[in-house]
Amino acid sequence: MAALLLVLLVILLLFGGGFALHVLWYVAIAVLVLWLLGFAMRSGNGRWYRW
Asked: What are phi and psi of 43, to 5 degrees?
């Protein structure tokens, strides 16, 4: 019984980690797109965002 619970816990952790990494990839892509847009749309010396 304990082995079954341990296996289910490992599966849950691996699924949760995979889902979190998947979401982090989308966040990284969104930040990259925003950075590229800010780099492309800068006017003169300044940029349209203040990072």
From this structure: -115, 120
